[in-house]
């Protein structure tokens, strides 16, 4: 009978074992809840980042499709000038036509100076604007563009509006992110007098 009594005493769980079990489960549960809280709080971030990337790609494409000519289209010798010095109306940084709307006729019309970020796509309180000047209805996004002469393959880095290669940088920032989306693209002067249709 003493063997049966000893077995009966060992069949249950002691109070110390039960407390240790509860402590281990509590720690594991706290870790799982922290991971779930972090995942839930950041679940919208990949969607907003992807939206920022799509905005940056569209804006970069808009700028790259603009002409890269020596003369402003209003110049009487725009189709024959071989550099900006030969133009009657030179193409330079900034838009030559006051109040002109996007899309501009030349790449360097989007910025007021070389390598200076400009919010050319923002409509003030309206947020980002599309190429026709309509609000994009994308709250919390902002975009800047900077354009600078740069070396591209065999094309040397020029200076000013006479440069034959330009680096275009689009930066799209959005609420809730410390790292904006940045895209770089290049535009080469392959036909100096060719303007967009």
Please give a quick description of this structure:
It is built from 3 helices and 3 strands. The chain has 197 residues and is an alpha+beta fold.
Core attributes:
197 residues, alpha+beta, 2 domains, three-stranded antiparallel beta sheet, 3 helices
Architecture overview:
The chain has 3 helices and 3 strands; from the N terminus they run αααβββ. The model has no long low-confidence stretch (mean pLDDT about 85). It has 2 domains: about 1-40; about 45-190, no CATH class. A hairpin with a 6-residue loop joins strand 2 and strand 3. Helix content is about 30%, strand content about 15%. The chain has helices at about 1-10, 15-40, 45-65, and strands at about 140-150, 165-175, 180-190. By secondary structure, it is α+β, with helices and mostly antiparallel strands. A 3-stranded antiparallel beta sheet has the order 1-2-3.
């Amino acid at each position: 009978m003493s063997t049966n009594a000893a077995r009966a005493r060992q069949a249950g769980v002691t109070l110390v074992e039960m407390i240790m079990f509860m402590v281990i489960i509590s720690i594991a549960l706290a870790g799982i809840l922290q991971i779930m809280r972090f995942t839930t709080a950041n679940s919208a971030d990949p969607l907003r980042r992807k939206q920022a990337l799509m905005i940056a790609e569209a804006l970069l494409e808009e700028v790259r499709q603009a002409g890269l000519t020596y003369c402003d289209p209003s110049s009487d010798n725009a189709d024959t000038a071989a550099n900006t010095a030969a133009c009657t109306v030179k193409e330079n940084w900034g838009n030559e036509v006051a109040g002109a709307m996007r899309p501009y006729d030349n790449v360097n019309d989007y910025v007021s100076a070389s390598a200076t970020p400009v919010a050319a796509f923002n409509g003030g309180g309206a947020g980002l604007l599309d190429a026709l000047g309509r609000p994009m209805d994308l709250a919390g996004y902002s975009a800047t563009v900077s354009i600078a002469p740069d070396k591209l393959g065999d094309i040397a880095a020029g200076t000013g509006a006479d440069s034959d290669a330009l680096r275009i940088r689009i930066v799209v920032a959005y609420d809730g992110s410390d790292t904006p989306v940045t895209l770089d693209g290049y535009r080469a002067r392959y036909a100096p007098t060719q303007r967009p249709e």
